[in-house]
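Subject: design request, 158 residues
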């Protein structure tokens, strides 16, 4: 079992450094995605409930700590110079050349402006980011990174 924790720890630490690198390159930040932390806590609660973490060892504690740190880091997303940084365990970045279309949806919020951005790729995958900016500011910043050849559609929620 300790070999399993060691291999998971090495994989998670590698992913954490990879995510930190892209997080440090973000120029235009999106809102923090708290669902990554919530899902990690649910996973850990299920693990404790099913007695997977009953034998407290150093390797298990390191695994739990790195898993929680990874979920916190994974919630940070935005636009970097070379790629779109998204929140996801299996794909952390998307090349700007792969993005075919962007849909911006303004969300009515009395406290602060909120814009949902859906980035659709050439192979029909979609990535979702939220910004706490006006839609005009989001369009200007997206154009800086994507250029004028990618279509941007603006919609509004009622």
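Subject: RE: design request

Done. Sequence follows.
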């Amino acid at each position: 079992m300790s070999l399993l924790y060691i291999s998971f720890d090495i994989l998670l630490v590698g992913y954490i450094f990879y995510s930190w690198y892209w997080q440090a390159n973000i120029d235009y930040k999106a809102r923090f995605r708290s669902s990554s932390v919530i899902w990690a806590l649910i996973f850990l609660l299920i693990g404790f409930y099913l007695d997977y973490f009953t034998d407290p060892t150093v390797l298990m504690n390191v695994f739990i700590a790195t898993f929680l740190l990874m979920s916190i880091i994974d919630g940070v997303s935005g636009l970097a110079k070379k790629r779109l940084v998204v929140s996801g365990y299996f794909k952390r970045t998307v090349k700007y050349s792969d993005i075919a279309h962007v849909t911006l949806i303004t969300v009515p919020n009395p406290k602060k402006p909120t814009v949902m951005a859906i980035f659709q790729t050439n192979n029909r995958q979609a990535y979702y980011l939220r910004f706490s900016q006006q839609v005009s500011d989001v369009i200007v910043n997206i154009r800086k990174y994507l250029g004028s050849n990618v279509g941007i559609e603006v919609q509004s929620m009622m």
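Strands lie at 26-29, 78-80, 83-85, 93-95, 99-107, 114-121, 126-131, 151-156.
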